[in-house]
Every structure is written in C-alpha cells, then in structure tokens.
C-alpha cells in the first residue's frame, strides 16, 4: 500500500514535469493578434477565415545580427509571426552565433528544448538541480536536449567562423531568463547588498557588472 502510494506520487511528479502546454480543444486556433482579451494563450480567429498562410512563416529565413554583448541572436516563431501555432505547444528558434559568440546561461520556465547544430561547432550544456554540468560538443547534424526549466548555454567554439543552430521548444511561449541579466539588470534593481552576498563580491564589482551588462 505504502509502495503503491509512493509509486503514484512519483508518477504524478514525472507526468507533471513532462507536461507541455494545455491540450488544444480543436484542430487549430489561429491567433487573433488584434484581440484585446488576455487569456491563457491567444484567442482564435473565426475558423472559416483561416488560410494556409496562417500556418507558414519566413521569420526564420533571415539571419539575426549577433549582438555585440554576447555575439548571438535568437529569432523565434510566435503567435504574431506564425499565428497557426497558437495552442500547439511549439516554438522554433533560429540561433545565429558570431565567432566565439555565446547564448549566455539562461532558462525557459515553460519549455524543454532540443537543439540541432546546422553549421559550425557548438559547445552546449546544462546544469541540473544538483549542480551537475552536462556538456557536449555538437557538429552539424548533431542534437542535444535541454530539460525544462534548467539553466543552459550554447557557444561557438570557433573564433572566426559563425555558427547556426535551430531549436524546437515545447511551448508556444517558452519564456527566457538570462541569469546574468535577470540578476544584474532587472528594473528596479535587486539591492546591491543581496548581490554582494550572493556572489561574494564588493559593491564596486556589482556596479561594474551592472554597467558591463548595460544595466
Ligand atoms: C537580432 O537580429 C535582428 C535582425 O538583424 C535585429 O533586428 C535585432 O535587433 C537583433 N537582436 C539583438 C538582441 O541584437
């Protein structure tokens, strides 16, 4: 009996961890991007008005210009540029990296992610909740999974050649929190005393990091 209960609780926890977005209740719910309502997701347009182009996008056809700060640019599908993905629990991301560019450590509160390296050589990795790091070097055609909610990164190991990756994410609205920016450039700021103690640095260090990150 006790074992049965433990098994049930384990299963419930496991199932809740792999849960993606809520199941759709219809074939499709093409996003009405002009709707004034706030619901869990985006309201649908009249199904009779749906056309093929609602399910297509060229949003990922163009290279994103890597930022000077990190040397990367992430372009996402969303309910605005691909309204047909509303309620489907999916996002596709195009990740362009310049030489030695990184997508800094970040997490997606609502999605797991599977990434495929299409060009260049990537070092990718995530840290689990026990503090263990899993990393892998990816060549074109090779893939890696980042479990939901865990902090992960991608980096281009080549200092000259750009790299390209594409990721699928298990939510139409994965959300992203870049750890360094969340902690040092939030508005309003996290009090210096907290960051000093959290990172075991002094006030000047905190100011310098804030300034370097554009906060
Ligand atoms: C990503 O690239 C696009 C297209 O070049 C650009 O408009 C956008 O500002 C870039 N984003 C960042 C964060 O640099």
Quick synopsis:
The protein is of the alpha+beta class and 215 residues long.
Walk me through this protein's architecture.
The strands form two sheets. A five-stranded antiparallel β-sheet has the order 1-2-9-4-7, with no helix packed on it. It is globular and about 60 Å long. The protein is α+β, with helices and mostly antiparallel strands. It is built from four helices and ten strands. It folds into two domains: 47-173, Jelly Rolls (Sandwich); 185-215, no CATH class. 2-acetamido-2-deoxy-beta-D-glucopyranose binds next to loops. Residues 58-207 form the Cupin type-1 domain.
**Order of helical and strand elements:** HEEEEEEEEEEHHH
Number of helices: 4
Task: Show unreliable segments.
Answer: 13-17
Average pLDDT, all residues: 92
| CATH fold label of the largest domain | Jelly Rolls
Radius of gyration: 20 Å
Give the class from helix and strand content and strand pairing: alpha+beta
Classified by CATH, the class of the largest domain is Mainly Beta
Bound molecules: 2-acetamido-2-deoxy-beta-D-glucopyranose
Number of domains: 2
CATH architecture of the largest domain: Sandwich
Helix content bin = 10-25%
Q: Ends: how far apart?
A: 55 Å
User: Looking at this structure, what is the CATH superfamily of the largest domain?
Assistant: Jelly Rolls
* E-strand count: 10
Content of β-strand = 25-35%
Shape: globular
The biggest beta sheet reads: 5 strands, antiparallel
Disulfide bonds: 29-44
GO biological process, one term: plasmodesmata-mediated intercellular transport
Signal peptide: 1-20
GO molecular function: manganese ion binding
